[in-house]
Design brief:
Keywords: ATP-binding, Nucleotide-binding, Transport. The chain is of the alpha/beta class and about 250 residues long. Helices cover about 25% and strands about 25% of the residues. The structure holds adenosine-5'-triphosphate (ATP) and magnesium ion.
């Protein structure tokens, strides 16, 4: 299968602080890859670097086989950031936020076409927010706002979805609905890279886990088994079994 997303020997620094050290990861078409690891380990930085949202100080990233610096086909990519940014001050309805996910598809046609409207409606249904479509997005709860962002990404009908903790703060019913939507997405040839702390209902969909620890990938393979004392059928969060030593290049991250 062709490689949809890759970072090769990627290094990211914030100021003089090394946050990702020589990280290589590749996601093939049709895969669902989960990025796991402790807070601050570099998970968000890894996916942001893969999308060119933070610069690599060394190494390379590519999307759909095209080096990022030459990649222009952004409508093929849906991205859900970890948190809704601070309010833009513009009150937008849920439907408007989701519709913004269609903009890259619309070209210069000024009005939403039937295909836009149906993709927007389908995305709202997938996250269970159709009944809130006319409400101001900033009046929704945190978990509901997260679902709005997921719907916005789905509405763009991308080939690749990159999701940073899409189900954090989302209730069990909505997680189940999202897992269903993600299953449909993968069933139609989509590829997914997601960050998660608890896979929950997404677990059956995940093919591979990449565990990040102190800015390095310490595991790339099957989803790690839960640690022994947590080994309970209902307890499916994963622990990175990683070396405790800090890389010597590492400065002051916990
Ligand atoms: N914009 C930034 N400027 C400076 N340091 C940053 C920035 N973003 C992240 N960092 C630092 O980089 C390290 C990795 O952060 P990152 O957000 O990638 O972690 P994470 O694994 O996604 O954590 P979490 O599970 O809490 O989301 C952290 O030490 C963090 O403080
Ligand atoms: Mg993060």
């Amino acid at each position: 299968m062709p490689v949809v997303l890759s970072v090769t020997n990627g290094v990211v620094t914030y100021g003089d602080r090394l946050v990702l050290l020589d990280v290589s990861v590749a996601v093939a078409k049709g895969e669902v890859v989960a990025v796991l690891g402790a807070n601050g380990s570099g998970k968000s930085t890894l996916i942001r670097a893969a999308l060119g949202l933070v610069p690599l100080s060394r190494g390379e990233a590519a999307l759909f086989g095209t080096p990022l610096r030459r990649f222009r086909d952004w409508r093929r990519v849906g991205y859900v950031p970890q948190r809704l940014g601070a309010g833009s001050g513009v009150p937008a309805t849920v439907r408007e936020v989701v519709a913004s996910g269609r903009l890259a598809r619309r070209g210069w046609a000024p009005f939403a076409r039937a295909a836009d409207r149906s993709a927007i409606q389908k995305a709202l249904d997938a996250v269970g927010l159709a009944d809130r479509a006319g409400d101001r997005a900033d009046t929704l709860s945190g978990g509901q706002q997260q679902r709005v962002l997921i719907a916005r990404a789905l509405a763009g009908e991308p080939d690749l979805l990159v999701l940073d903790e899409p189900t954090a703060g989302v209730d069990a019913t909505s997680q189940q609905a999202f897992a269903g939507a993600l299953g449909d997405f993968v069933g139609t040839g989509g590829t997914v890279l997601l960050v998660a702390h608890e896979l929950g209902p997404l677990a059956p969909l995940v093919n591979r886990a990449v565990v990040v620890h102190l800015g390095r990938i310490v595991h790339d393979g099957p989803v790690p088994e839960p640690a022994g004392h947590h080994a309970h059928p209902d307890h499916d969060h994963v622990h990175p079994h990683a070396p405790e030593t800090e890389p010597s290049l590492f400065k002051g991250t916990a």
